[in-house]
Amino acid sequence: MTALVDRLTVRPLDPAADARLIHGWVTHPKAAFWMMQDARLQDVEREYTAITAHEHHHAFVGLLDGEPVFLMERYDPHHLELVGLYEPEPGDVGMHFLVAPSDPPVHGFTRAVITAVMRELFADPRTRRGSWWSRTSATRPCTPSTRMSGSPWSTRSRSRRRTPR
């Protein structure tokens, strides 16, 4: 897995240039958890324009050897998404990630992506913990020392439904 993780990088998402790509990912049946199944291309571009313009929310495209393969969002839980659900501490960061659909699936790929996402989050020296929703609907902190193998943590359900505007 290490070799695969080392081939993963991220770049800032460009809403105009990446809208078609991201639209295909977030409207795919496997991305129902993302709650954008009925979004039009313009809706996706508008949503990610708002995210990239927000002071406390950022979006990135994840690349494998330069090819887009996942979406990553980073946000400040003091200001967005998890407000009122837990008391964030200084250095907490929230995140979402979505792995692009692939056929056939690549064994170990999602684990490599979450490892790359965590590497990216903790590359910022201000980050102490990452927070996101688990499938059990509890907010879970993650620190650099948290073991990812066997972890019940995964992406979280949306606290607000993304619908076409």
Gist of the model:
The chain has 165 residues and is α+β, with helices and mostly antiparallel strands. The protein has helices at 2-6, 15-26, 41-53, 109-122; strands spanning 8-12, 57-64, 67-75, 92-99, 129-133, 139-142.
Descriptive overview:
With 165 residues, the protein is of the alpha+beta class. Helix content is 27%, strand content 24%. It is built from four helices and six strands, in the order H-E-H-H-E-E-E-H-E-E. It has helices at residues 2-6, 15-26, 41-53, 109-122, and strands at residues 8-12, 57-64, 67-75, 92-99, 129-133, 139-142. It has a six-stranded mixed beta sheet, with helices on both faces. Helix 2 (15-26) crosses helix 3 (41-53). The termini are far apart. Residues 133-165 have low confidence and may be disordered.
- The helical percent reads 25-40%
Give the number of helices: 4
Low-confidence stretches: 133-165
Q: Give a quick account of the main beta sheet: strands, pairing sense, barrel closure.
A: 6 strands, mixed
Taking all Cα atoms into account, the compactness measure Rg is 15 Å
Enumerate the strands of the largest sheet in spatial order, edge to edge or round the barrel. 1-2-3-4-5-6
Percent of residues in beta strands?
A: 15-25%
The string of secondary-structure elements, in order, is HEHHEEEHEE
Characteristic terms for this protein:
single chain; 165 residues; alpha+beta; six-stranded mixed sheet; 4 helices; globular
Secondary-structure map:
Blueprint: H1 2-6, E1 8-12, H2 15-26, H3 41-53, E2 57-64, E3 67-75, E4 92-99, H4 109-122, E5 129-133, E6 139-142
Parallel strand pairs: 4-5
Antiparallel strand pairs: 1-2, 2-3, 3-4, 5-6
Helix pairs in contact: 2-3
